[in-house]
Recover the amino acids of this structure.
C-alpha cells in the first residue's frame, strides 16, 4: 500500500476554510447554522483573515459584497435557509458583479439532520444566474473554492459553492497548499457597474447573458466536469454531482461510466452529448430536485431519475441500491420494542427551563397560543412543558404571534398570544419582528430568552454577548435598551431560575392588554464564561450542586416534572436522586414540597464542559 | 478490502476523540480513510455516531446498514440501536455502561436489563468494563481511548504507532494517562 504522504484528514468545512485561506481571502462573514458553522470557526483561526459573525445571513452577505467592492476577496458561509435570508443582496450583486472575488457557500441539508426543512439551493444559482460548484469530498472543497475565486474575478460575478451535510461533516484526506497573497485592488468609483438604477441594471442584465455564455464554455472544458469510463465496458451511465458521486460509486463500482459534474451552472451540453455516445442506460442521481435530470431531458435524452430516486432525503448507498436493484443489504434484526430513543433535552442548568416550567403551568390554565422560534428553546414544545403551538422560521415568533393575535381578535376571542425567541434570534431578525408588534398596536407578550450566547449552534458570540468570533471582548448591545428605544413600555427583566419572579411577571403580562416584553437573563450553562459573567451572576455560577435528603423525599415527582436530566427516580420510583451533572440552578429545590432537596457542601467545577465545545451544529 | 467501523455513544462520552485517534493511526499506516460524524443534538444528551471506513480506496463516508465489521459502543442502548448496521459476522466491542435517556429518568419508559444478552445473542460481543478499568488507572474519562486499544488489537493493527496518534490528538499533559488506558485496552482482549 502506498504511504499517503503529506495528507491530512479534514472535514469539508475545514477544507473550505483552508481553501479560502489559501485563495488569499481577507474578509469572511457568516451567521452560524448547521452544517456551515465550522467553516467560519476554522477561517477565524487564520489571523490574516478578518473573520466576523454577522447578526444574520443577509448582513453577512452584504458585508462580503461591500468587502469585494472594496477590493478584497471575501467569503460568506451559511446554512441552506440562511441563503433565503441572504437572497435579496445575492440577486442584485449577481447583476453588479465583483471587484475582489466573492464566494457564497451554501450548506444544504438533504435528510434534515438538524434543520426545519430541506431545500435544494442549486436552484439559487440558476435563479440568480451565478456560477455553481459542487465539491464531493474535502480535497475538492479545498481545490474548488480556490478556482471559484478565480472564476469570480475573471467573469465578474459572485459564485455559489453548494455542499451538503455529508460533505461538510465527512473527513477525507487532503493535500494542503500555501496561501497566496492577493493585492488589494485600488478602489475606483464606478456607478455604471455598482449603482443599479433601472438604466444601469438593464445593461447589467444583458451582460449576465454574455457572462453565462462564456461560463458555458468554461463548463465544457474544465477538468471539474469529466467522464470516468467504466473499467468493465459497462453501458450503464451515471450522471452525478456532489456527495452522491461517492454514494453512487459505492453501489455501481467500476460497472458504470460516470459523468461527474463539479461545475454545474451552466451545465456542459457538449460533454453530455459525448457521454451519451458511450452509454445506453443512464441514471441521474442527485439529492432533492431534478435539476440535472431536467437538463438531460431538455437535451432530448432518456434517463432514469426522479421518481425512481426519491425527490427528498439523501442518496446514500442503501437508497440508490434499493432504487436500482430493488434490494438492500441483509440486515441483522433486533427487537425494536426494547429501543428507547434519546431525544435531545435541555441541559442541566439550562436557563430556559425555569421559564418554560412556569409558562407551562400558566398557559394550561389560561387560553393561550404560543408562537415559538428556532433555538435550544424550541425544546419548550416537548414534554414536560408542551408550551409551543407553532414555529415559522428564525425571527418570526413576535410577528407571527401578532398576526395570530389579530386573527383571534377578529374572531372575538381574547386568547393571549405569546411569542418566544432567544437573544441571537432577536438580533437576527427578531428586532423587526418586535417592531411589527409595537408599530401596529399589537398585544403580544414578547419573550426574549437571553442566555447570553447563540446556544443551539455551539455557543457562538452574538451582538448581545460581549464576545466576538475569536472570543475576544466586543461591544455589547443591551437588549433591554434596544427594546425600550423601540418604544416598548412594559419591559421586565427577570432571572429565569427564580420561579416566583417568573410567575409574577407572567401574571402581570397576562393582565395587560398591551405589548409586553419579558427578557429572561441568565447564561447558557455551556457558555465560555468570562470575568464579566462571574461578576454579574456570582462567583458560584454553575459551581454548586444539589442533593436529595432521602428521609425527607416523599416520591411526589415534583422535581422530575421540571424535566432536568440530572434528576431520576430510584428505589422503584419512590425516591428522587440528583447525580453529579447538577450545576445548581436550584429549580428542583424550589418545587420540592418537603425541602428534601438541598444544596451540597461540595464546591468545585462541575462536569459540564465549560469551554467551547469543539463540535456541533 | 474495506473495513467498516462504527463508533457510537452519548454526547460527552468522548466518541469523537476516539474516532480522531483511530483515523489518525489508520491514515499514518497508509490507508485511505473516510469518516462521517453524526452529531445531531449531541450536546444535549442525544446520541453520537462516527462512521469510519478504511482500505485501499474508499468512496462513501457512510456505512450502509448491513455492512459494519466492528461496532464500538460506549453505552448499551446505543450498541443495541446500531446492530442493524452490522454484518451477520460483525463484532461488537461494548463498554458495559448504561446512560438512561430522559424518558427513563422520568419513569415513563423502561431501560431493558437484558440488552447485553440481546446484543451478545445476535452478534459476537466483547464486553469491556472500560469506565471501571479507566478509573482504576486514574483516568476516569479514558474509557474511550481504552476501547480504541481493544479495537486495534482485534483488528490486528498493533504495528501502527498509536502513541503518535494519541499525541497528535490530546493535550500534552493527557498523553501519558491516555497511553496507559490504551495499553490496558489492548491487554483486555
Ligand atoms: C435562517 C437561519 N439561520 C440559522 C439557523 C441555525 N440556527 C438554529 S438555532 C440557532 C441559534 C439560536 O440562538 P438563540 O436565539 O440565542 O437561542 P439559544 O439556542 O441560545 O437558546 C441558529 C443560528 C436557522 N435555523 N435558520
Amino acid at each position: 500500500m502506498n504511504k499517503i504522504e503529506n495528507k491530512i484528514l479534514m472535514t469539508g468545512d475545514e477544507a473550505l476554510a483552508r481553501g479560502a485561506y489559501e485563495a488569499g481571502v481577507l474578509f469572511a462573514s457568516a451567521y452560524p447554522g448547521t452544517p456551515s458553522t465550522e467553516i467560519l470557526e476554522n477561517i477565524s483561526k487564520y489571523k490574516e483573515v478578518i473573520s466576523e459573525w454577522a447578526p444574520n445571513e443577509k448582513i453577512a452577505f452584504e458585508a462580503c459584497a461591500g468587502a469585494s467592492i472594496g477590493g478584497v476577496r471575501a467569503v460568506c458561509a451559511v446554512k441552506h435557509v440562511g441563503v433565503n435570508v441572504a437572497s435579496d443582496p445575492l440577486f442584485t450583486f449577481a447583476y453588479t458583479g465583483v471587484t475582489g472575488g466573492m464566494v457564497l457557500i451554501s450548506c444544504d441539508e438533504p435528510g434534515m439532520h438538524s434543520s426545519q426543512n430541506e431545500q435544494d439551493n442549486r436552484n439559487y444559482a440558476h435563479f440568480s444566474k451565478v456560477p455553481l460548484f459542487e465539491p464531493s469530498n474535502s480535497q475538492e472543497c479545498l481545490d474548488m473554492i480556490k478556482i471559484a475565486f478565480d472564476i469570480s474575478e475573471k467573469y465578474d460575478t459572485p459564485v455559489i459553492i453548494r455542499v451538503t451535510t455529508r460533505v461538510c461533516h465527512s473527513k477525507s484526506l487532503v493535500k494542503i497548499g500555501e496561501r497566496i497573497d492577493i493585492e488589494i485592488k485600488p478602489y475606483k468609483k464606478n456607478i455604471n457597474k455598482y449603482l443599479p438604477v433601472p438604466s444601469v441594471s438593464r445593461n447589467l442584465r444583458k451582460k449576465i447573458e454574455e457572462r453565462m455564455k462564456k461560463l458555458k464554455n468554461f463548463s465544457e472544458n474544465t477538468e471539474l466536469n469529466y467522464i470516468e469510463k467504466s473499467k468493465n465496458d459497462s453501458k450503464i451511465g451515471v450522471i452525478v454531482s456532489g456527495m452522491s458521486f461517492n454514494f453512487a460509486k459505492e453501489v455501481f463500482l467500476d460497472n458504470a461510466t460516470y459523468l461527474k459534474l463539479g461545475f454545474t451552472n451552466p451545465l456542459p451540453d457538449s460533454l453530455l452529448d459525448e457521454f451519451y455516445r458511450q452509454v445506453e442506460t443512464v441514471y441521474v442521481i442527485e439529492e432533492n430536485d431534478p435539476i440535472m435530470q431536467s437538463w438531460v431531458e431538455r437535451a432530448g435524452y432518456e434517463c432514469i431519475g426522479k421518481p425512481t430516486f426519491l425527490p427528498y432525503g439523501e442518496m446514500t448507498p442503501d437508497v440508490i441500491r434499493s432504487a436500482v436493484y430493488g434490494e438492500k443489504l441483509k440486515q441483522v434484526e433486533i427487537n425494536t420494542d426494547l429501543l428507547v430513543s434519546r431525544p435531545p433535552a435541555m441541559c442541566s442548568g439550562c436557563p430556559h427551563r425555569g421559564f418554560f416550567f412556569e409558562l407551562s403551568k400558566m398557559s394550561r390554565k389560561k387560553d393561550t397560543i404560543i408562537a415559538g422560534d428556532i433555538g435550544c428553546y424550541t425544546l419548550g414544545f416537548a414534554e414536560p412543558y408542551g408550551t409551543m403551538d407553532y414555529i415559522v422560521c428564525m425571527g418570526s415568533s413576535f410577528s407571527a404571534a401578532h398576526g395570530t393575535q389579530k386573527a383571534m381578535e377578529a374572531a372575538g376571542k381574547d386568547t393571549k398570544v405569546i411569542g418566544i425567541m432567544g437573544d441571537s434570534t432577536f438580533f437576527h431578525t427578531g428586532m423587526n419582528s418586535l417592531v411589527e408588534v409595537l408599530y401596529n398596536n399589537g398585544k403580544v407578550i414578547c419573550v426574549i430568552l437571553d442566555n447570553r450566547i447563540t446556544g443551539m449552534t455551539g455557543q457562538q458570540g452574538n451582538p448581545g454577548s460581549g464576545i466576538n468570533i475569536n472570543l475576544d471582548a466586543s461591544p455589547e448591545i443591551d437588549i433591554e435598551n434596544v427594546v425600550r428605544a423601540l418604544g416598548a413600555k412594559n419591559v421586565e427583566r427577570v432571572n429565569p431560575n427564580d420561579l416566583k419572579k417568573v410567575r409574577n411577571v407572567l401574571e402581570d403580562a397576562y393582565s395587560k392588554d398591551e405589548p409586553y416584553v419579558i427578557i429572561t437573563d441568565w447564561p447558557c450553562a455551556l457558555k465560555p464564561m468570562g470575568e464579566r459573567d462571574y461578576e454579574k451572576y456570582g462567583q458560584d455560577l454553575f459551581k454548586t450542586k444539589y442533593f436529595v435528603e432521602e428521609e425527607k423525599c416523599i416520591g411526589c415527582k415534583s422535581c422530575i416534572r421540571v424535566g432536568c436530566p440530572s434528576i431520576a427516580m430510584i428505589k422503584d420510583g419512590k425516591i428522587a436522586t440528583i447525580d453529579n451533572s447538577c450545576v445548581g440552578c436550584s429549580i428542583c429545590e424550589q418545587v420540592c414540597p418537603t425541602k428534601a432537596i438541598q444544596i451540597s457542601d461540595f464546591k468545585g467545577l462541575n462536569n459540564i464542559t465549560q469551554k467551547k465545545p469543539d463540535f456541533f451544529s | 478490502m474495506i473495513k467498516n467501523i462504527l463508533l457510537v455513544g452519548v454526547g460527552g462520552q468522548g466518541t469523537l476523540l476516539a474516532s480522531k485517534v483511530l483515523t489518525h493511526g489508520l491514515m499514518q499506516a497508509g490507508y485511505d480513510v473516510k469518516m462521517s460524524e453524526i452529531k445531531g443534538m449531541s450536546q444535549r444528551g442525544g446520541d453520537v455516531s462516527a462512521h469510519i471506513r478504511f482500505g485501499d480506496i474508499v468512496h462513501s463516508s457512510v456505512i450502509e446498514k448491513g455492512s459494519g465489521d466492528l461496532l464500538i459502543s460506549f453505552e448499551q442502548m446505543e450498541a443495541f440501536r446500531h446492530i442493524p448496521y452490522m454484518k451477520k459476522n460483525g463484532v461488537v466491542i461494548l463498554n458495559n455502561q448504561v446512560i438512561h435517556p430522559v424518558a427513563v429518568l422520568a419513569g415513563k419508559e423502561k431501560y431493558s436489563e437484558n440488552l447485553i444478552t440481546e446484543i451478545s445473542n445476535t452478534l459476537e460481543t466483547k464486553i469491556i468494563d472500560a469506565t471501571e478499568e479507566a478509573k482504576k488507572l486514574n483516568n476516569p474519562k479514558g474509557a474511550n481511548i481504552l476501547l480504541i486499544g481493544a479495537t486495534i488489537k482485534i483488528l490486528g493493527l498493533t504495528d501502527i504507532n498509536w502513541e503518535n496518534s494519541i499525541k497528535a490528538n490530546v493535550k500534552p499533559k493527557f498523553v501519558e494517562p491516555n497511553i496507559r488506558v490504551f495499553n490496558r485496552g489492548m491487554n483486555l482482549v
About this structure: The mean pLDDT of chain B is 92. Chain B touches chain A through 61 residues (CB under 8 Å). Chain B is about 40% helix and 25% strand.
